[in-house]
Amino acid sequence: MSARTAPASLDELDRRIVNAVQGGFPIVDEPYREVAESLGTTEADLLARLKRMLDARVLTRFGPMFQIERLGGRFVLAALAAPEERFAEVAERVNALPEVAHNYRREHRLNMWFVLATETPDGIEKAIRRIEADTGLKVFAFPKLREFFVDMRLKA
């Protein structure tokens, strides 16, 4: 397990950017320009700050969130127990699948947790079987029973 890194330093504008891009992102020809103007900055500065926050892993993802079930697909949280000596190799194999959206290391017997998202409900089972065949490890799938939306707002 890697050592914790120092907390990132975010100024007031960084915090306002994080708050602004979490919801209601404008669907216009130049959305970044519109958001930048609403924050009193330039499009170039906004894009540079977003890139810096992504590079520093302050933001781990920047993109739309879809209700996959409404589009005919499915997703599940999944986990497996990767032997420590194989962890990097197993993570590489799991992450190679286009169905894997996130992959996190945990300090637990099930030490690798990831999200599987597929275009069709039966795609989940196919992805699980492929991971099991590629790694020789049992995948435990935890389907969504209830949905929660967590909105994180920072003090600017």
Structural notes for this entry:
There is one protein chain. This protein has five helices and four strands. The protein has helices spanning 12-20, 31-39, 43-55, 87-95, 122-135; strands at residues 74-80, 100-105, 112-118, 140-143. Helices cover 35% and strands 15% of the residues. Helix 2 crosses helix 3. It has a four-stranded antiparallel sheet with strand order 2-3-1-4. The longest helix has 14 residues, at 122-135. With 156 residues, the chain is α+β, with helices and mostly antiparallel strands.
Q: Which parts are unreliable, with pLDDT below 50 for 5 consecutive residues or more?
A: none
What is the first-to-last residue Cα distance? 33 Å
Relative strand content: 15-25%
Spatial shape: globular
What are the secondary-structure elements, in order, as H or E?
A: HHHEHEEHE
In helices, the fraction of residues equals 25-40%
Mean pLDDT: 90
Oligomer: single chain
Concise structural overview:
The protein is α+β, with helices and mostly antiparallel strands and 156 residues long. It has helices at residues 12-20, 31-39, 43-55, 87-95, 122-135, and strands at 74-80, 100-105, 112-118, 140-143.
Question: What keyword list fits this structure?
Answer:
156 residues; four-stranded antiparallel beta sheet; 5 helices; 4 strands; 15% strand; globular
Topology:
Layout lengths: L11 H9 L10 H9 L3 H13 L18 E7 L6 H9 L4 E6 L6 E7 L3 H14 L4 E4 L13
Antiparallel strand pairs: 1-3, 1-4, 2-3
